[in-house]
Amino acid sequence: MGKPTGFLEFTRSLPKKRDPQERIKDYKELYIYDSFGTEKVEEQASRCMNCGVPFCHNGCPLGNIIPEFNDAVYNKDWEEAYTILSSTNNFPEFTGRICPAPCEASCVLGINQPPITIEEIEKNIIETAYKNGYVKPNVPRERTGKKVAVVGGGPAGLAAAAQLNKAGHFVTVFERADEVGGLLRYGIPDFKLEKWVVERRVEVMKQEGIEFRTNANVGVNVSIEELNENFDAIVLSGGSTVGRDLPIPGRQFKGVHFAMEFLSQQNKRVSGKKVEVDHTGTPYANGEILATNKNVVVIGGGDTGSDCVGTSNRHGAKSVTQIELLSKPPENKNEATPWPNWPMILRTSTSHEEGADRKWSILTKEFVGDANGNLSGLKLVDIVWNGGKFEEVAGTERVIPCELAFLAAGFLHPQHTGMIEQFGVELDERGNVKANNYQTSIEHVFACGDMRRGQSLVVWAISEGREAARAVDVYLTGSSKLEAKDSSLLYLKA
Prior knowledge:
This protein has 494 residues and is α/β, with parallel strands linked by helices. It folds into three domains: 6-132, Orthogonal Bundle (Fumarate Reductase Iron-sulfur Protein, Chain B, domain 2); 147-241 and 412-490, FAD/NAD(P)-binding domain; 245-409, FAD/NAD(P)-binding domain (3-Layer(bba) Sandwich). The chain is built from 18 helices and 18 strands.
Protein backbone atom coordinates (compact mmCIF):
# COMPACT_ATOMS: atom_id res chain seq x y z
CA MET A 1 0.00 0.00 0.00
CA GLY A 2 1.85 3.05 -1.27
CA LYS A 3 0.07 5.79 0.66
CA PRO A 4 -2.16 4.71 3.57
CA THR A 5 -3.88 8.12 3.72
CA GLY A 6 -4.26 8.59 -0.05
CA PHE A 7 -8.00 7.92 -0.10
CA LEU A 8 -8.45 10.55 2.62
CA GLU A 9 -6.33 13.20 0.90
CA PHE A 10 -7.54 12.94 -2.69
CA THR A 11 -10.86 12.47 -4.41
CA ARG A 12 -11.61 10.86 -7.75
CA SER A 13 -10.40 12.77 -10.79
CA LEU A 14 -10.45 12.15 -14.55
CA PRO A 15 -9.01 13.85 -17.64
CA LYS A 16 -10.91 16.83 -19.00
CA LYS A 17 -13.21 16.24 -21.95
CA ARG A 18 -13.23 18.32 -25.08
CA ASP A 19 -16.14 20.74 -25.41
CA PRO A 20 -19.21 18.86 -26.76
CA GLN A 21 -19.87 21.44 -29.48
CA GLU A 22 -16.28 21.17 -30.66
CA ARG A 23 -15.84 17.42 -30.54
CA ILE A 24 -18.95 16.69 -32.63
CA LYS A 25 -17.08 18.29 -35.53
CA ASP A 26 -14.66 15.35 -35.76
CA TYR A 27 -14.14 11.70 -34.79
CA LYS A 28 -11.08 12.12 -32.59
CA GLU A 29 -10.99 10.75 -29.04
CA LEU A 30 -12.97 12.74 -26.51
CA TYR A 31 -10.48 13.36 -23.73
CA ILE A 32 -7.70 15.93 -23.36
CA TYR A 33 -5.04 13.54 -22.09
CA ASP A 34 -2.46 16.29 -21.64
CA SER A 35 -4.66 17.58 -18.84
CA PHE A 36 -3.99 14.43 -16.81
CA GLY A 37 -0.23 14.07 -16.36
CA THR A 38 1.81 11.35 -14.71
CA GLU A 39 1.69 13.02 -11.30
CA LYS A 40 -2.11 13.09 -11.44
CA VAL A 41 -2.27 9.38 -12.29
CA GLU A 42 0.11 8.53 -9.44
CA GLU A 43 -2.06 10.62 -7.11
CA GLN A 44 -5.14 8.69 -8.19
CA ALA A 45 -3.33 5.37 -7.69
CA SER A 46 -2.53 6.43 -4.12
CA ARG A 47 -6.28 6.32 -3.33
CA CYS A 48 -6.24 2.50 -3.55
CA MET A 49 -6.63 1.09 -0.03
CA ASN A 50 -5.04 -2.32 -0.77
CA CYS A 51 -8.09 -3.97 0.78
CA GLY A 52 -7.73 -7.23 2.67
CA VAL A 53 -10.41 -8.62 0.35
CA PRO A 54 -10.04 -6.77 -2.98
CA PHE A 55 -13.51 -7.04 -4.52
CA CYS A 56 -12.19 -5.35 -7.66
CA HIS A 57 -10.54 -8.67 -8.58
CA ASN A 58 -13.92 -10.38 -8.69
CA GLY A 59 -15.55 -7.43 -10.44
CA CYS A 60 -13.04 -7.65 -13.31
CA PRO A 61 -13.82 -10.48 -15.78
CA LEU A 62 -10.07 -10.79 -16.39
CA GLY A 63 -9.14 -10.95 -12.72
CA ASN A 64 -6.77 -7.98 -13.11
CA ILE A 65 -4.44 -7.61 -10.13
CA ILE A 66 -5.51 -4.07 -9.44
CA PRO A 67 -4.11 -3.12 -5.99
CA GLU A 68 -0.67 -4.33 -7.03
CA PHE A 69 -0.48 -2.28 -10.23
CA ASN A 70 -1.92 0.73 -8.38
CA ASP A 71 0.88 0.39 -5.83
CA ALA A 72 3.49 0.17 -8.57
CA VAL A 73 2.12 3.31 -10.25
CA TYR A 74 2.16 5.23 -6.98
CA ASN A 75 5.79 4.21 -6.48
CA LYS A 76 6.60 5.38 -10.04
CA ASP A 77 7.58 1.87 -11.13
CA TRP A 78 5.68 1.94 -14.42
CA GLU A 79 7.49 -1.06 -15.90
CA GLU A 80 6.47 -3.17 -12.91
CA ALA A 81 2.90 -1.87 -13.27
CA TYR A 82 2.92 -2.94 -16.93
CA THR A 83 4.28 -6.39 -16.04
CA ILE A 84 1.48 -6.90 -13.53
CA LEU A 85 -1.27 -5.59 -15.82
CA SER A 86 -0.15 -7.53 -18.89
CA SER A 87 -0.03 -10.78 -16.91
CA THR A 88 -3.84 -10.87 -16.97
CA ASN A 89 -4.87 -8.51 -19.78
CA ASN A 90 -3.58 -8.82 -23.34
CA PHE A 91 -5.08 -5.53 -24.50
CA PRO A 92 -5.25 -2.86 -21.77
CA GLU A 93 -5.27 -0.19 -24.49
CA PHE A 94 -8.75 -1.42 -25.48
CA THR A 95 -10.25 -1.96 -22.04
CA GLY A 96 -8.67 1.25 -20.73
CA ARG A 97 -10.74 3.17 -23.29
CA ILE A 98 -14.04 1.36 -23.76
CA CYS A 99 -14.66 -0.89 -20.75
CA PRO A 100 -17.59 0.14 -18.49
CA ALA A 101 -15.27 -0.76 -15.61
CA PRO A 102 -17.19 -3.31 -13.50
CA CYS A 103 -14.05 -3.35 -11.33
CA GLU A 104 -14.80 0.21 -10.26
CA ALA A 105 -18.34 -0.74 -9.31
CA SER A 106 -16.82 -3.37 -6.98
CA CYS A 107 -14.22 -1.05 -5.45
CA VAL A 108 -14.47 -1.12 -1.64
CA LEU A 109 -13.80 2.61 -1.48
CA GLY A 110 -16.94 3.04 -3.58
CA ILE A 111 -19.13 2.11 -0.60
CA ASN A 112 -19.00 5.68 0.68
CA GLN A 113 -16.68 7.55 -1.71
CA PRO A 114 -16.14 7.77 -5.47
CA PRO A 115 -14.23 4.60 -6.49
CA ILE A 116 -10.64 4.40 -7.72
CA THR A 117 -10.13 5.51 -11.33
CA ILE A 118 -8.99 2.00 -12.27
CA GLU A 119 -9.76 2.28 -15.97
CA GLU A 120 -7.86 5.55 -16.39
CA ILE A 121 -4.86 4.18 -14.47
CA GLU A 122 -4.91 1.08 -16.67
CA LYS A 123 -4.89 3.15 -19.87
CA ASN A 124 -2.01 5.26 -18.60
CA ILE A 125 0.01 2.14 -17.72
CA ILE A 126 -0.22 0.71 -21.23
CA GLU A 127 0.35 4.04 -22.98
CA THR A 128 3.42 4.67 -20.82
CA ALA A 129 4.58 1.14 -21.64
CA TYR A 130 4.34 1.81 -25.37
CA LYS A 131 6.05 5.18 -24.99
CA ASN A 132 8.95 3.76 -22.96
CA GLY A 133 9.44 0.63 -25.06
CA TYR A 134 8.18 -1.89 -22.50
CA VAL A 135 5.80 -3.43 -25.06
CA LYS A 136 7.88 -5.85 -27.07
CA PRO A 137 6.90 -8.73 -29.37
CA ASN A 138 6.58 -11.89 -27.27
CA VAL A 139 8.17 -14.40 -29.66
CA PRO A 140 8.14 -17.98 -28.32
CA ARG A 141 11.54 -19.54 -27.71
CA GLU A 142 10.31 -22.90 -29.00
CA ARG A 143 7.49 -23.99 -31.29
CA THR A 144 5.34 -27.04 -30.65
CA GLY A 145 4.72 -27.75 -34.32
CA LYS A 146 0.96 -27.61 -33.73
CA LYS A 147 -1.20 -25.34 -35.90
CA VAL A 148 -4.30 -23.53 -34.70
CA ALA A 149 -6.84 -21.62 -36.78
CA VAL A 150 -8.66 -18.78 -35.02
CA VAL A 151 -11.79 -17.82 -36.92
CA GLY A 152 -12.73 -14.26 -36.07
CA GLY A 153 -10.38 -11.34 -35.49
CA GLY A 154 -12.32 -9.55 -32.75
CA PRO A 155 -11.14 -9.18 -29.14
CA ALA A 156 -11.88 -12.82 -28.25
CA GLY A 157 -10.04 -14.15 -31.28
CA LEU A 158 -7.11 -11.79 -30.81
CA ALA A 159 -6.75 -12.80 -27.16
CA ALA A 160 -6.92 -16.50 -28.05
CA ALA A 161 -4.35 -16.01 -30.81
CA ALA A 162 -1.95 -14.11 -28.54
CA GLN A 163 -2.11 -16.77 -25.84
CA LEU A 164 -1.83 -19.72 -28.20
CA ASN A 165 1.16 -18.12 -29.89
CA LYS A 166 2.69 -17.55 -26.46
CA ALA A 167 2.32 -21.29 -25.83
CA GLY A 168 4.40 -21.96 -28.94
CA HIS A 169 1.72 -23.00 -31.42
CA PHE A 170 1.57 -21.68 -34.99
CA VAL A 171 -1.51 -19.46 -35.15
CA THR A 172 -3.44 -18.15 -38.14
CA VAL A 173 -6.33 -15.71 -37.65
CA PHE A 174 -9.04 -15.75 -40.31
CA GLU A 175 -11.04 -12.51 -40.52
CA ARG A 176 -13.83 -12.07 -43.05
CA ALA A 177 -13.59 -8.27 -43.05
CA ASP A 178 -10.86 -6.35 -44.80
CA GLU A 179 -9.32 -5.28 -41.46
CA VAL A 180 -8.69 -7.11 -38.19
CA GLY A 181 -10.48 -6.06 -34.99
CA GLY A 182 -14.11 -7.16 -35.24
CA LEU A 183 -16.29 -4.82 -33.21
CA LEU A 184 -13.20 -2.80 -32.28
CA ARG A 185 -12.68 -2.03 -35.97
CA TYR A 186 -16.17 -1.90 -37.47
CA GLY A 187 -18.51 -1.14 -34.60
CA ILE A 188 -17.13 1.07 -31.85
CA PRO A 189 -16.86 4.67 -33.10
CA ASP A 190 -13.48 6.30 -33.51
CA PHE A 191 -14.35 8.97 -30.97
CA LYS A 192 -14.26 6.20 -28.35
CA LEU A 193 -11.47 4.11 -29.88
CA GLU A 194 -9.32 5.47 -32.68
CA LYS A 195 -8.29 2.67 -35.02
CA TRP A 196 -4.55 3.31 -34.81
CA VAL A 197 -4.82 1.82 -31.34
CA VAL A 198 -6.03 -1.48 -32.83
CA GLU A 199 -3.53 -1.37 -35.69
CA ARG A 200 -0.64 -0.79 -33.28
CA ARG A 201 -1.48 -3.96 -31.34
CA VAL A 202 -2.05 -6.06 -34.46
CA GLU A 203 1.39 -5.03 -35.71
CA VAL A 204 2.96 -6.29 -32.45
CA MET A 205 1.12 -9.59 -32.86
CA LYS A 206 2.39 -9.95 -36.42
CA GLN A 207 5.94 -9.47 -35.14
CA GLU A 208 5.26 -12.25 -32.63
CA GLY A 209 4.67 -14.64 -35.52
CA ILE A 210 0.86 -14.65 -35.76
CA GLU A 211 -0.47 -14.78 -39.32
CA PHE A 212 -3.55 -12.75 -40.24
CA ARG A 213 -5.70 -13.54 -43.27
CA THR A 214 -8.29 -10.87 -44.01
CA ASN A 215 -11.18 -11.08 -46.49
CA ALA A 216 -11.19 -14.74 -45.43
CA ASN A 217 -14.80 -15.75 -44.90
CA VAL A 218 -14.76 -19.31 -43.58
CA GLY A 219 -17.58 -21.28 -45.10
CA VAL A 220 -17.63 -19.03 -48.18
CA ASN A 221 -14.19 -18.41 -49.73
CA VAL A 222 -12.29 -20.51 -47.17
CA SER A 223 -13.59 -24.05 -46.90
CA ILE A 224 -14.21 -26.02 -43.73
CA GLU A 225 -12.22 -28.85 -45.31
CA GLU A 226 -9.16 -26.61 -45.63
CA LEU A 227 -9.22 -25.82 -41.91
CA ASN A 228 -9.79 -29.43 -40.87
CA GLU A 229 -6.93 -30.65 -43.06
CA ASN A 230 -4.36 -27.99 -42.22
CA PHE A 231 -4.91 -27.26 -38.53
CA ASP A 232 -4.73 -29.37 -35.39
CA ALA A 233 -7.34 -27.24 -33.61
CA ILE A 234 -9.84 -24.56 -34.57
CA VAL A 235 -11.18 -21.75 -32.39
CA LEU A 236 -14.48 -20.17 -33.41
CA SER A 237 -14.42 -16.61 -32.06
CA GLY A 238 -16.87 -14.70 -34.24
CA GLY A 239 -19.33 -12.24 -32.83
CA SER A 240 -23.02 -12.30 -32.00
CA THR A 241 -23.96 -10.56 -35.24
CA VAL A 242 -27.68 -11.26 -35.71
CA GLY A 243 -29.43 -8.17 -34.41
CA ARG A 244 -32.76 -8.22 -32.58
CA ASP A 245 -35.33 -7.06 -35.10
CA LEU A 246 -38.58 -5.18 -34.50
CA PRO A 247 -41.21 -6.88 -36.68
CA ILE A 248 -43.99 -4.32 -36.42
CA PRO A 249 -46.08 -2.65 -39.16
CA GLY A 250 -43.99 -0.48 -41.46
CA ARG A 251 -40.71 -2.33 -40.88
CA GLN A 252 -40.18 -2.34 -44.66
CA PHE A 253 -39.98 1.43 -45.02
CA LYS A 254 -36.70 2.94 -46.20
CA GLY A 255 -34.95 4.51 -43.24
CA VAL A 256 -35.21 1.66 -40.72
CA HIS A 257 -31.79 0.10 -40.11
CA PHE A 258 -29.88 -2.07 -37.67
CA ALA A 259 -27.49 0.07 -35.64
CA MET A 260 -24.36 -1.82 -36.61
CA GLU A 261 -24.88 -1.17 -40.30
CA PHE A 262 -24.83 2.57 -39.57
CA LEU A 263 -21.84 2.40 -37.22
CA SER A 264 -19.70 0.19 -39.45
CA GLN A 265 -20.30 2.45 -42.43
CA GLN A 266 -19.08 5.47 -40.48
CA ASN A 267 -15.95 3.65 -39.35
CA LYS A 268 -15.20 3.00 -43.02
CA ARG A 269 -15.64 6.67 -43.86
CA VAL A 270 -13.31 7.79 -41.08
CA SER A 271 -10.69 5.33 -42.39
CA GLY A 272 -11.03 6.73 -45.88
CA LYS A 273 -12.66 3.59 -47.25
CA LYS A 274 -15.51 3.50 -49.75
CA VAL A 275 -18.87 2.59 -48.26
CA GLU A 276 -19.74 -0.13 -50.72
CA VAL A 277 -19.68 -3.51 -48.97
CA ASP A 278 -20.16 -4.71 -45.40
CA HIS A 279 -17.77 -6.83 -43.34
CA THR A 280 -18.73 -9.96 -45.30
CA GLY A 281 -18.01 -8.33 -48.66
CA THR A 282 -21.72 -8.06 -49.42
CA PRO A 283 -22.92 -4.80 -51.01
CA TYR A 284 -24.95 -2.65 -48.61
CA ALA A 285 -28.58 -3.33 -49.52
CA ASN A 286 -29.70 0.12 -48.38
CA GLY A 287 -26.78 2.13 -49.72
CA GLU A 288 -25.13 4.79 -47.60
CA ILE A 289 -26.87 5.74 -44.35
CA LEU A 290 -26.53 9.40 -43.41
CA ALA A 291 -28.28 11.21 -40.55
CA THR A 292 -27.69 14.71 -41.91
CA ASN A 293 -30.74 16.99 -41.49
CA LYS A 294 -32.93 14.07 -40.39
CA ASN A 295 -35.00 13.40 -37.29
CA VAL A 296 -33.24 10.34 -35.86
CA VAL A 297 -34.76 7.92 -33.34
CA VAL A 298 -32.57 5.30 -31.68
CA ILE A 299 -34.57 2.35 -30.35
CA GLY A 300 -32.61 0.86 -27.45
CA GLY A 301 -30.92 2.44 -24.45
CA GLY A 302 -27.58 0.61 -24.32
CA ASP A 303 -24.04 1.39 -25.47
CA THR A 304 -24.75 0.64 -29.13
CA GLY A 305 -27.66 3.06 -29.05
CA SER A 306 -25.45 5.67 -27.41
CA ASP A 307 -22.89 5.22 -30.20
CA CYS A 308 -25.65 5.90 -32.74
CA VAL A 309 -26.50 9.10 -30.86
CA GLY A 310 -22.91 10.36 -30.99
CA THR A 311 -22.49 9.45 -34.65
CA SER A 312 -25.83 11.06 -35.63
CA ASN A 313 -24.81 14.29 -33.92
CA ARG A 314 -21.57 14.29 -35.89
CA HIS A 315 -23.56 13.84 -39.10
CA GLY A 316 -25.56 16.96 -38.28
CA ALA A 317 -28.94 15.35 -37.52
CA LYS A 318 -31.92 17.68 -37.15
CA SER A 319 -32.88 15.95 -33.89
CA VAL A 320 -31.78 12.82 -32.00
CA THR A 321 -34.15 10.90 -29.73
CA GLN A 322 -33.28 7.71 -27.85
CA ILE A 323 -36.11 5.60 -26.48
CA GLU A 324 -36.06 2.68 -24.07
CA LEU A 325 -38.71 0.07 -23.28
CA LEU A 326 -37.75 -0.15 -19.60
CA SER A 327 -38.40 2.49 -16.96
CA LYS A 328 -35.88 5.19 -16.11
CA PRO A 329 -33.34 3.87 -13.56
CA PRO A 330 -32.46 5.85 -10.42
CA GLU A 331 -29.78 8.49 -10.84
CA ASN A 332 -27.65 7.46 -7.87
CA LYS A 333 -27.70 4.31 -5.75
CA ASN A 334 -30.15 1.53 -6.47
CA GLU A 335 -31.21 -0.60 -3.50
CA ALA A 336 -32.02 -3.45 -5.87
CA THR A 337 -28.36 -3.70 -6.93
CA PRO A 338 -26.24 -2.88 -3.84
CA TRP A 339 -22.44 -2.92 -3.73
CA PRO A 340 -20.50 -4.89 -4.94
CA ASN A 341 -23.01 -5.71 -7.70
CA TRP A 342 -23.09 -3.81 -10.98
CA PRO A 343 -25.44 -0.92 -10.12
CA MET A 344 -28.51 -0.44 -12.31
CA ILE A 345 -28.45 3.36 -12.32
CA LEU A 346 -28.87 6.09 -14.90
CA ARG A 347 -25.75 6.46 -17.01
CA THR A 348 -25.15 9.50 -19.17
CA SER A 349 -22.58 8.83 -21.86
CA THR A 350 -20.38 11.36 -23.61
CA SER A 351 -22.70 11.02 -26.62
CA HIS A 352 -25.69 12.01 -24.51
CA GLU A 353 -23.77 15.07 -23.34
CA GLU A 354 -23.51 16.14 -26.98
CA GLY A 355 -27.28 16.27 -27.35
CA ALA A 356 -30.14 13.77 -27.23
CA ASP A 357 -33.73 13.62 -26.03
CA ARG A 358 -33.86 10.47 -23.88
CA LYS A 359 -37.19 8.82 -23.08
CA TRP A 360 -38.08 5.72 -21.05
CA SER A 361 -41.08 3.38 -20.76
CA ILE A 362 -41.84 3.80 -24.46
CA LEU A 363 -43.20 1.12 -26.82
CA THR A 364 -42.77 1.49 -30.59
CA LYS A 365 -46.03 0.36 -32.21
CA GLU A 366 -45.55 1.21 -35.86
CA PHE A 367 -43.15 2.67 -38.43
CA VAL A 368 -45.03 5.31 -40.41
CA GLY A 369 -44.10 6.00 -44.03
CA ASP A 370 -44.98 8.22 -46.97
CA ALA A 371 -46.33 7.33 -50.40
CA ASN A 372 -42.80 6.76 -51.73
CA GLY A 373 -42.01 4.11 -49.11
CA ASN A 374 -39.79 6.35 -47.00
CA LEU A 375 -39.95 6.45 -43.21
CA SER A 376 -41.62 9.63 -41.95
CA GLY A 377 -42.55 8.91 -38.35
CA LEU A 378 -42.86 6.51 -35.42
CA LYS A 379 -46.07 5.65 -33.60
CA LEU A 380 -45.25 5.42 -29.90
CA VAL A 381 -47.15 4.79 -26.67
CA ASP A 382 -46.21 5.05 -22.99
CA ILE A 383 -46.19 1.79 -21.02
CA VAL A 384 -46.12 0.70 -17.39
CA TRP A 385 -45.11 -2.58 -15.78
CA ASN A 386 -48.18 -4.10 -14.15
CA GLY A 387 -48.73 -7.63 -12.86
CA GLY A 388 -45.71 -9.08 -14.62
CA LYS A 389 -46.38 -7.53 -18.02
CA PHE A 390 -46.25 -4.25 -19.88
CA GLU A 391 -49.50 -2.32 -20.30
CA GLU A 392 -50.14 0.64 -22.55
CA VAL A 393 -51.13 3.92 -20.91
CA ALA A 394 -54.43 5.08 -22.36
CA GLY A 395 -54.36 8.36 -24.24
CA THR A 396 -50.58 8.45 -24.75
CA GLU A 397 -50.37 7.13 -28.31
CA ARG A 398 -48.78 9.63 -30.68
CA VAL A 399 -46.67 9.88 -33.84
CA ILE A 400 -43.32 11.67 -33.76
CA PRO A 401 -41.37 12.75 -36.87
CA CYS A 402 -38.61 10.35 -37.86
CA GLU A 403 -36.81 9.86 -41.15
CA LEU A 404 -34.14 7.55 -39.75
CA ALA A 405 -34.62 4.85 -37.10
CA PHE A 406 -31.88 2.64 -35.69
CA LEU A 407 -32.59 -0.71 -34.07
CA ALA A 408 -30.19 -1.00 -31.13
CA ALA A 409 -32.00 -3.55 -28.99
CA GLY A 410 -29.21 -6.10 -28.73
CA PHE A 411 -28.17 -9.24 -30.58
CA LEU A 412 -29.64 -12.73 -30.69
CA HIS A 413 -26.78 -15.09 -31.62
CA PRO A 414 -24.01 -15.61 -34.20
CA GLN A 415 -24.79 -16.11 -37.87
CA HIS A 416 -25.78 -19.74 -38.38
CA THR A 417 -25.66 -19.89 -42.17
CA GLY A 418 -22.31 -20.75 -43.65
CA MET A 419 -19.54 -21.70 -41.24
CA ILE A 420 -21.55 -22.88 -38.22
CA GLU A 421 -23.94 -24.98 -40.29
CA GLN A 422 -21.07 -26.47 -42.29
CA PHE A 423 -19.11 -27.40 -39.17
CA GLY A 424 -22.24 -28.97 -37.71
CA VAL A 425 -21.47 -27.95 -34.12
CA GLU A 426 -24.27 -28.17 -31.58
CA LEU A 427 -26.05 -24.99 -30.51
CA ASP A 428 -27.49 -24.10 -27.12
CA GLU A 429 -31.05 -23.02 -26.42
CA ARG A 430 -30.22 -19.41 -27.26
CA GLY A 431 -28.66 -20.23 -30.63
CA ASN A 432 -25.05 -19.81 -29.52
CA VAL A 433 -22.37 -22.43 -30.12
CA LYS A 434 -22.57 -24.96 -27.31
CA ALA A 435 -19.27 -25.70 -25.61
CA ASN A 436 -18.03 -27.56 -22.54
CA ASN A 437 -14.86 -25.91 -21.24
CA TYR A 438 -14.79 -24.09 -24.58
CA GLN A 439 -14.76 -27.39 -26.51
CA THR A 440 -17.66 -27.87 -28.92
CA SER A 441 -19.41 -31.10 -29.93
CA ILE A 442 -16.55 -31.59 -32.42
CA GLU A 443 -13.42 -32.56 -30.51
CA HIS A 444 -10.86 -30.31 -32.23
CA VAL A 445 -13.19 -27.30 -32.56
CA PHE A 446 -13.46 -24.78 -29.73
CA ALA A 447 -15.60 -21.66 -29.27
CA CYS A 448 -15.26 -18.48 -27.24
CA GLY A 449 -16.46 -14.92 -26.92
CA ASP A 450 -19.89 -13.78 -28.06
CA MET A 451 -20.19 -16.86 -30.26
CA ARG A 452 -20.24 -19.05 -27.13
CA ARG A 453 -21.36 -16.66 -24.40
CA GLY A 454 -23.74 -14.40 -26.27
CA GLN A 455 -23.41 -10.63 -26.62
CA SER A 456 -21.23 -9.20 -23.90
CA LEU A 457 -18.43 -6.76 -23.09
CA VAL A 458 -15.04 -6.51 -24.78
CA VAL A 459 -13.40 -7.35 -21.44
CA TRP A 460 -15.43 -10.57 -21.29
CA ALA A 461 -14.40 -11.39 -24.86
CA ILE A 462 -10.73 -11.06 -23.93
CA SER A 463 -11.28 -13.28 -20.88
CA GLU A 464 -13.07 -15.87 -23.02
CA GLY A 465 -10.26 -15.88 -25.57
CA ARG A 466 -7.62 -16.40 -22.90
CA GLU A 467 -9.50 -19.26 -21.25
CA ALA A 468 -10.28 -20.93 -24.58
CA ALA A 469 -6.60 -20.77 -25.51
CA ARG A 470 -5.70 -22.60 -22.33
CA ALA A 471 -8.27 -25.30 -23.11
CA VAL A 472 -6.85 -25.68 -26.62
CA ASP A 473 -3.30 -25.85 -25.25
CA VAL A 474 -4.30 -28.67 -22.88
CA TYR A 475 -6.03 -30.48 -25.76
CA LEU A 476 -2.94 -30.25 -27.97
CA THR A 477 -0.21 -30.96 -25.42
CA GLY A 478 -1.87 -32.54 -22.38
CA SER A 479 -1.07 -29.61 -20.07
CA SER A 480 -0.69 -25.83 -20.16
CA LYS A 481 1.50 -23.17 -18.62
CA LEU A 482 -0.82 -20.41 -19.77
CA GLU A 483 -2.29 -18.34 -16.96
CA ALA A 484 -5.78 -19.27 -15.79
CA LYS A 485 -8.06 -16.56 -14.44
CA ASP A 486 -8.37 -18.25 -11.06
CA SER A 487 -4.57 -18.25 -10.68
CA SER A 488 -4.12 -14.50 -11.22
CA LEU A 489 -3.99 -13.77 -7.50
CA LEU A 490 -0.89 -15.97 -7.21
CA TYR A 491 1.15 -13.16 -8.73
CA LEU A 492 4.04 -12.17 -6.47
CA LYS A 493 6.56 -9.44 -7.05
CA ALA A 494 10.03 -10.62 -7.98
